[in-house]
Amino acid sequence: MSDFILETKSLTKEFKGFTAVANVDLQVQRGHIHALIGPNGAGKTTCFNLLTKFLVPTSGQILFNGKDITSFKPAQIARMGVIRSFQISAVFPHLTVLENVRIGLQRKLGTTFHFWRSGRTLEQLNGRAMELLAEVDLASFADTLTVDMPYGRKRALEIATTLAMEPEMMLLDEPTQGMGHEDVHRVTELIKKVSSGRTILMVEHNMNVVSGICDRISVLQRGAVLAEGPYEEVSKNPQVMEAYMGTEAGVGA
Q1: pLDDT digits over 54-63, tens only?
Q2: HEC string of 157-216?
Q3: Engineered SS bond to 203: which of 2, 44, 220, 241, CB 3.0-4.6 Å?
Q4: Rounded to whole angstroms, how far apart are CA atoms 176 and 180?
Q5: Class of 1-81+169-178+200-253 per CATH?
Q6: What is the pLDDT of residues 188-215, one digit of tens each?
């Protein structure tokens, strides 16, 4: 099996003459935490949407575990073990924390659309749900309504529901966006913890997070790969430094 769990070859997306992603060759190594960074409008989220098939590429290829998945649908990608989070917290606000994780686990029961069944049939999932909550330090919040949770804890819950899908690869879209320092630290440590035995590709603006946990970084600018490598190398690249000049967060910020 290849060292690369995910590869793109000349991945391109055009919108009516505007090229959002241009000939991107990406190689994500198995077991790594790999960051996709770049100034606003660089094409990072478009790239994520292409990888998870929320957008169809104009041209190019996407390979997962050596298999061409370019023409696959989002549900097929998810079933293969590529699970993604979004910039906006995607949890069910009026369910408890435990119930949110149980929904992620329910798929394996094959009863997702069995609306006639009693909700009590899901109680068999409570043990595994509590294990996942413990993994993300949320066991004490199990009976809390999600709407009452602090924002940083909601993001941790989102990671727990992602883990419930048993991903081989997690795609995290700006997991620390909008967080205070304490929450950023907590979620960063959490990502590091859950990366064991998994591969993570993340879009992230906070360079302290990127420098602290990422094995490799790809820098996008105007939809193309500007530089790639370890943080120490990429952060000293003159082109990268120029691309970040005048933006909110410089490469060393």
Answers
A1: 999 999 999 9
A2: HHHHHHHHCCCCEEEEECCCCCCCHHHHHHHHHHHHHHCCCCEEEEECCCHHHHHHHCCE
A3: 44
A4: 9
A5: alpha beta
A6: 999 999 998 899 999 998 889 999 999 9
The domain limits of the chain are 1-81+169-178+200-253, 90-166
Q: Do 89 and 175 touch, CB atoms closer than 8 A?
A: no
Best CA proximity match to 217, nearest among 235, 197, 241, 199: 235
CB 171 within 8 A of CB 44: no
Q: Count each helix (H run) and each strand (E run) in the chain, helices first.
A: 9, 10
3-state secondary structure of 180: coil
Name the pTM for this structure.
Answer: 0.86
